[in-house]
Amino acid sequence: MAYRLERAGFAVTVLEARKRVGGRNWTLRRGDKVELDGVAEQFVQFSEGMYFNAGPARIPSHHQGLLGYCKILDVPLEVEVNFSNSNLLESAKAFGGKPIQERQAINDFRGQIAELLSKATNRDALDHELSADDKDRLIAFLRTYGDLTKENIYKGSDRSGYKVLPGAFDQVGVKRDPLSLRDLLKDEALAGMMFDENIVMQATMLEPVGGMDRIPYAFHKSIKTPIHLDAEVKRISQTTDRAEAVYLDRRSGNTIELFADFVVCTIPLPVLAEIDNDFSAPVKQAIAGAVYDHSAKVAFESSRFWEAEQIYGGLSFGTAATGVVWYPSNGFQSARGIIIGAYVSGKAATAFEALPIAQQIALARNAVDKLHPGHGVDLGSPVAVDWNKVPYSLGPWMHWQDNPTDATAYRLLNQPEGRIYFSGAHLSQLPSWQEGAVVAAHRTIELITTRVGAAKSSAKS
Questions:
Q1: How far is CA 416 from the centre of its chain?
Q2: pLDDT confidence of residue 399
Q3: Superfamily of domain 2-22+213-291+398-460, CATH level 4
Q4: Which pLDDT score is estimated for 455?
Q5: Which of 103, 118, 177, 445 sits in a 20 to 30 Å window from 289, CA-based?
Q6: Which segments of the chain have a pLDDT < 50?
Q7: Left if phi > 0, otherwise alpha if psi is -120 to 50, otherwise beta: which for 448?
Q8: Residue 279's pLDDT is what?
C-alpha cells in the first residue's frame, strides 16, 4: 500500500503495532520470541539457517500481483512442492491405520472407477447419454486413464508404485497389489488425493528463498518514509477537513497524534473493533460482526527422515484433529529441516487452540509418528502458533460469503467512511492469501487517486 501510494505522489506515514513488518507474513528463526495472548512466551531454538513460515508459506503461480512485486523488488523465488505422490494418507478406519502413499490411492482409485465406468458403459447403462461411437471412444480412453487390461479390468498399475523396485539386469519390478475401492472409500483422508486440484493449490507453487518475510522486508527497504514500529493505534477519527490517528509509541510510552488527508486502515477487524473511533453506527456494527476463522501450526526441527521415504516437500494427510503434516521444500539432502507436524484450520483448529501448548505439541508429534512410525522422537525445538491468540491479528482470515448478513458488511467496508478507507486481504475475494492484500490495496489506491483527481478538477473549474 505505502509503496504504491508513494509512487503515486502521496506523502505516507506507516504505523505498525508490531516490532516487525509483515503482519500475518511472519517467519520465525532462532532467537525469535513468540507471544500469544494468555500463553507463556516461546523462544525459537532452531539451528542457525532454519526458519518456519508461521503465516503464509506458498504463492500460487496465478497470484501475479504478489509475484510481480517479488520481481520488482528482487525477491528471489524457489519452487514450493505443494503436492507429491510420495506423500501419505493415514486413517484409523482404513488399512489397519497404516498410511498409504498418495500415488497408490490416486491410481488405484482411478483404476477402480475406470473399471466400474467401463462396465456400466458395456452394459448399455449410458445409452441415453452416449452414441455407439462415443461409447467406443470412452472405453478406449478408460483403458489408458485407468490402466485397464484389454478386458477392461483393473489389476493394478506401476503408476501406484512397486513392492520391489526394478533394478539391474534381471531384477524385475513387482507392482503393488491394488487396493480395493471399498477400503479406499473408508479412508477418511482420501480427499487429500485431490488437494492439488484446488485452483489455489495447483502447481507451480512458489516461495521466497530464505523465508516468506523476505517480501515485507523488501517492501520496507523500498519505502522512502520510515515505518513507525511499536506504534499501537488507539483512536481513529475525522472531521470534514482531515483525518486523525492517535497512537501509543510503545518504545517511549508517548501518545502521538497524526493528521492527514486520509487514513487507510488495514487493521484486522477483531483488533479494529476494540479501537476508539467515530465511525458511523453501521460501520461499527459491520466491524464488530466480523467473525474470523481459526488456524494453528506446530513446527519442529528434525533430521530429514522423510526423505528416506521418497518425500521431498508436499503434505501428508492424517487425522482431522491436527490437519496436515507439511514437509520443507528447501534444503533437500541436507542434514536437518523444519517439518510442520500440525497445520489445522476451521472447527478442528478451534478445538486445537483450546488445548495447552504442550498438548498441541504432543498431538503434532503423534501425528508425525503415525505417518512415520518411530520418528516422533526425532522432532525437536517445537514452536506452536495459534493465530487467534496472536496480538494485533486475533485470527488468520475470514470468509464473508459464509453468512448472508456478511455480504452487506463486506460491501459497506469496501467503501470509504468519509476520509477513512478500509483495506486488506480481509476485504477481498482472497481473504486468506497475500494476493488478497495486493488487489485490495490496488483498489483502495484507485479510489483515493480518483477522489483527489476529481477534487483538483473541481477546484480548477
A1: 29
A2: 84
A3: FAD/NAD(P)-binding domain (3.50.50.60)
A4: 87
A5: 445
A6: none
A7: alpha
A8: 98
Long-range contacts of 93-97 (CB under 8 A, 24+ apart): 93/186, 93/187, 93/188, 94/183, 94/184, 94/186, 94/187, 94/188, 95/179, 95/183, 95/187, 97/370
Distance (Å, rounded) from C-alpha 372 to C-alpha 355?
24
In sequence order, what DSSP letters do the residues of 374-400 get, joined into one string? T-GGG-EEEEEEEGGGSTTTSSS---G
Neighbours of 112 (CB within 10 A): 19
Give me the phi and psi of 144, to 5 degrees please.
-75, -45
Model pLDDT, residue 215: 98
Residue 306 burial by CB count (10 A; 0-12/13-18/19+): exposed, middle or buried?
buried
Q: What is the DSSP letter of 177?
A: P
Per domain, the residue ranges of the chain are 2-22+213-291+398-460, 94-188
Residue 274's nearest CA partner among 394, 422, 136, 99 is 394
3-state DSSP percent of the chain in helix, strand and coil, to 5: 35, 20, 40
pLDDT value at residue 400: 82
Class of domain 94-188: mainly alpha
Digit-coded pLDDT (tens) for 367-426:
999 999 999 999 999 999 999 999 999 999 998 866 656 889 999 999 999 999 999 999
Burial label, 417 (beta-carbon count in 10 A; 0-12, 13-18, 19+): buried
**Which sign, positive or negative, has the C-alpha torsion 47, 50, 51, 52?**
negative
